[in-house]
Each structure stands twice: as C-alpha cells, then as structure tokens.
Write a structure and sequence with these properties.
This protein is an alpha/beta fold. It is built from 14 helices and 15 strands. The strands form 3 sheets. A 10-stranded mixed β-sheet has the order 1-2-3-4-5-6-7-8-12-13. This is Leucine-rich repeat-containing protein 71.
C-alpha cells in the first residue's frame, strides 16, 4: 500500500508540473503577442497616413481633408446648397373649364400654414460657417458650378485644403468670397490656385481690405479670369496702380479679362489715371466700373483722352518701330538675317537703314533680268488664259510672294475675316501687289489661332466639303501700336480705346469740365465709326454718370444722353405715320 501511495504521489506531482509548464508557456505567448501588438500600434501611430486623392466630389473631398487636417467634426463647415428665391406661381388659366371651388372658411383657432417665401432654421445656425454651392444637378455631387463663402475667415490651413480640392472640380466656374478676412499671403495663394481650375471664369472677392493691396496678382499673364469683382476692398491709388500695370504695359497685355468692377473703393484721380494708362494698350476689356470712388474732372478728362485719341510716349514709339521692323523682316525674330535682295526691295525699312546702294552692280543687273523674265512669264500666262476664255487672276512667282509677305501690306479688314481659304488668300495677295504702298498696317494678333494650320479649299479631292476651322467665328485681338497713326506737332497720335462698351463713373465728383471731355470723346468715336467702321471695335455704348455734381439742365449732359440713346443696341427709333403722328416701332 505504501508503494502504491508513493507512485500516486509521484504521478500527481509530475502532472502538476506539466500543467504549470503549460500555463507558463501560455502566459509567455500572450505576453509576446501583447508586446508585438503594442509595437505594431506604435509603428502605425508613428507612420504617416497615405495622402488623400480628391475624387472631384467637393462635399466628400472637403470633409475628408478637414478631418485629416485635425479639425473636430463639430468645427468642419458643412457644404450646403445655396438657397434660391421661390419662383412666381403661374397665372390662372382663364380658359379653364372647371373653376377652382370656393375655399371653405378657415377657423381662426386653427394654426395658419407657414409661408413658403422663406425657410426657418435653428437658432444661430445662420451665423455658423458653411460653404454654399450651386450644382447643375442636385443629385450628382460632381456637378458643382459655383462656390460661395461668406462671413468667416479663410486661414492658411483652409487655403491648403482648397488647393487640393478646387482643381478637381471639373465644372467649377464661379468663386465668390465675401468678408473672409484674407491676408496678403492667403490672397496670393488663392491667386496661384485659380489658374489650375480649368473652367473658372468668374471671381468675386469683396469686403476684404488688405493693407498690402496685392490685387494685381489676380490679373497676371496666366490668369484665366473673365469677370472680376473687387468691390468694397478699400483699394487706394497704390492698389489701382498695380491693377493698371497688370491690365497692360507697352509689351504685355491681359488677354482674358472682359469685365472689371472696382466700385466702392477709395482711389482718386491718381488711381484713375493709372487705370487709364493700363487701358492704352488693352483691347480686351469690355466693361469697367469705377463707381463710388473719388474721381474728379481731372480723371474724367483722362478717360476722355483714352476714348478719343492720344499721343504715343517715347517707349511706345520705340516698341512700335520694333514691331514694324519685325513685321517687315520676319526672319529677324528667329536670329536669321534676310537676304540682301529682300533688304533692298523692302519699303518698310527703318529710317536708320540706308538704301540698297551697298549692292554691287552685278546684283542689280541680275534683279533687272529676273524681273524681265517674270514679266514675260506673266504675259505668257495671260495669253494662255485669254485663249481659254476663263477669267483668272495672275499668279505671282514665289519670290514676289515672299517679298509682299515681308512687306505685310494687306487690307485693313483682312485680319478680321472668318476662316481662311486659299482663293481668298490669293486675291488678297494680288490686291497687295497693286496697292502695297498705300495699304494700312493691320495689327499683329496676340494669339495666332491659325498658326500651324493648313489652308484647304472648300472641297477636297474627293469632292466632299472640307472640315471647318476649329474657331471660325473668333475675332483676333489687335495690337494698337500697329494701328494707323497721325503726326501732329511732332507726335504720333493713334485712335483711342474703342473696345470698352460699358463705363460706369457714377457717384464720383465729376463736374462740367469732365462731362464735356467725355462728350467730345463719344462724338469722336461716332465720327470715326462712320468714316472707318470696324467689325469688332464698336465704341462706347453705355456711360453711367448718375449722382455726380452735374446740373440737371446741363446742355452737355443732354447731348450726351441723346447720343447714348442712339448707341443703345436695343434702341429702335420712332417712325412717323403718313399723317405726321409718331409711331413706335417697338413690338
């Protein structure tokens, strides 16, 4: 019995040791797993998250970028649809068969229905920051077209978020920022973001006074903004000078801005003169508003000179000579010198270059013999064509084509024709061969849309219609330095800016002297339009001068209003009936 008891004791102790070993091993495994998981969590915490790629859905992209920037969910501005005014109900149909039944009397004790002209919200929700958007289709988040931010500060972190999500919004065309506390840095950062938005055309930044006044950064050479509004920004003469320089200089010009609103600011005649200087070489801007500033007669006189005609400065004359020189010898821009024969035959040679006396006699004889051969060749072609009975235009040889192309003499309206065809080009070249010395210089285009394109006839070889050009209706911009000039008292005068069609100078300090200057400018534009009409430069059509210190019975003001009435594109003059009574043509 003792031996059996000892065996049981040994077995029990051995089993106990085995169990203890398993427990220790399990505890060690759990400890190792816990330590490894803790190390993994620490590595995940130290590891930077993967960058977020915007998908073009502004609401989702903006919310995720704000969350990754560390903003708590309660402080992320929500993206909401912009409230719209309810439309007017349609009028009742008088031909309806079943009239509406009479309304039952409403019990006064019952609660009246809420009106539909406004929307109720929670208390103080109106003052919470949000981003209002407009969409083409409310059910499609990728169709955001307009973004409105009003009444809350946009800091550097928010600008970084906009830098990531704005360029991915494909249909975004309008950004409106009102009273958002912009600084010099945040405005420049936003100005660098705008060119990355492919369809952004309208930008409004209002109620954001900035001490440095860096507003010119919005009108850079790479700017795609078409309509820009900078109202209520307390822009002074300093900011207006930068804006004027950004509109145009002697060598540069903004090519996209069509409408500029600078009303309700604080610049005087100095700032107005800077804007006028920026519009001397700009033929793109159509609408300009300078209402509610401090412009007096001095500034109005400057605008009168701009709209009528003005003398070129020394820098502009030098630049004009360079352009004419490059136009006369196109190889000069590529670093190649033209052949001596072209230099001798060119009539647009600068005055500092001497005549072709440096050519040797052999070259002159060679030129005369070549001209005789060319004349014989032309006469032979005329006889052959006359024998066939066909009316043709004598074609010039390649040398004459090059010479006339170097001279640049074309009809004044040739640059403004729509499309280009080979027969039209030949006719123009033939005309310049006859009137090359008297043809006026046309402006060089800012963007040569037809450069590199091959001109084709109206029908291809197979007889089918040739494809139309990509932009047949686009009117090419002009360079005013290459316009026709008039020499007066030793100065070169060119026609003024006729591209502006809408000018707002209301609520300023313009008196009778400024009014007379604007009247003379408008009369000059009308006379010039009658003598030399231009398909693109129509001249001033609307001029706002309300709430200026001008007498209501002013003769100049009445004449100005009468002239502007006829300039209105929607104006229809009244006709007289056979009885002598005036009848309106409207309707």
């Amino acid at each position: 019995m003792s031996e059996a008891g000892d065996a049981k004791g040994v077995f029990a102790s051995a089993a106990k040791k085995v169990k203890m070993g398993k427990r220790v091993e399990k505890a060690l495994k759990e400890k190792a797993a816990a330590s490894s998981s803790q190390e993994a969590t620490e590595e995940d915490a130290n590891k930077a998250p993967e960058p977020y790629t915007c998908i073009g859905h502004f609401d989702a992209d903006f919310t995720e970028l704000c969350r990754r920037a560390g903003l708590p969910p309660t402080e992320i501005p929500p993206v909401v649809l912009r409230a719209k005014r309810p439309g007017t109900p349609p009028p009742p149909d008088p031909k309806a068969k079943d009239p509406t039944p009479p309304e039952e009397p409403v019990d006064v004790a019952e609660e009246e229905p809420k009106p539909k002209t406004y929307v109720t919200k929670e208390k103080y929700s109106y003052f919470k920051p949000n981003i209002q958007v407009e969409m083409e289709h409310e059910e499609k988040p990728a169709t955001v077209t307009e973004i409105y931010i009003r009444g809350w500060k946009i800091d550097d972190m928010m600008v970084d978020i906009f830098r990531n999500c704005f360029p991915t919004i494909e249909k975004l065309n309008t950004i409106n920022l009102w009273n958002v506390g912009l600084t010099d840095k945040t405005l420049r950062d936003l100005a660098a973001i705008f060119p990355q938005c492919p369809n952004l055309k309208n930008v409004s930044i209002e109620g954001n006074p900035i001490a440095e006044e860096p507003w010119a950064c919005l009108i850079g050479d790479d700017s795609l903004i078409v309509n820009l509004s900078l109202r209520h920004n307390e822009i002074t003469d300093r900011g207006a000078s930068g804006i004027g320089a950004a509109l145009s200089t002697v060598t540069t010009c903004n090519k996209n801005l069509i409408s500029l609103n600078l009303s309700h600011n604080k610049f005087s005649d100095v700032g107005a003169e800077a804007v006028v200087k920026g519009l001397r070489m700009n033929r793109v801007l159509l609408c300009l508003s300078l209402a509610s500033n401090k412009i007096t007669d001095k500034g109005a006189v400057k605008f009168g000179e701009l709209l009528s005609r003005f003398p070129l400065t020394h820098e502009e004359v030098v630049e004009r000579r360079k352009l004419l020189s490059d136009k006369g010898s196109p190889d000069r821009g590529t670093g190649k010198s033209p052949p001596p024969s072209r230099r001798a035959e060119s009539k647009d040679r600068p005055g500092s270059v001497r005549s072709g006396s440096h050519l040797d006699k052999g070259d002159k004889k060679r030129d005369k013999s070549s001209k005789k051969k060319d004349n014989k060749h032309e006469k032979k072609n005329e006889k052959e064509d006359a024998g066939k009975g066909n009316k043709t235009v004598v074609m010039m040889d390649s040398k004459k084509d090059k010479d006339e192309g170097a001279k640049g003499g074309t009809k004044k309206d040739d640059k403004w024709k729509k499309g280009s065809h080979s027969m039209g080009a030949k006719a123009v070249m033939a005309d310049t061969s006859r009137h090359g010395s008297r043809a006026s210089l046309v402006a060089e285009t800012v963007n040569k849309t037809t450069k590199g394109k091959k001109t084709t006839s109206s029908k291809d070889k197979k007889g089918g219609a040739a494809p139309e050009s990509e932009s047949p209706d686009m009117v090419e911009a002009i360079n005013p330095l290459l316009d026709s000039v008039e020499s007066i008292d030793g100065q070169l005068w060119i026609p003024g800016n006729r591209s502006i069609i809408n000018l707002n100078l209301s609520r300023n300090e313009i008196g009778e002297a400024g009014l007379k200057s604007l009247l003379l400018a408008l009369q000059y534009q009308i006379t010039l339009a009658n003598l030399a009409p231009h398909p693109a430069l129509k001249g001033l059509m609307r001029l706002s001068l309300g709430r200026n210190p001008i007498r209501a019975d002013s003769e100049a003001y009445q004449k100005l209003q009468d002239l502007l009435l006829t300039r209105d594109p929607f104006y229809k003059p009244q006709a007289k009936s056979p009885d002598g009574e005036v009848q309106s043509l409207v309707g």
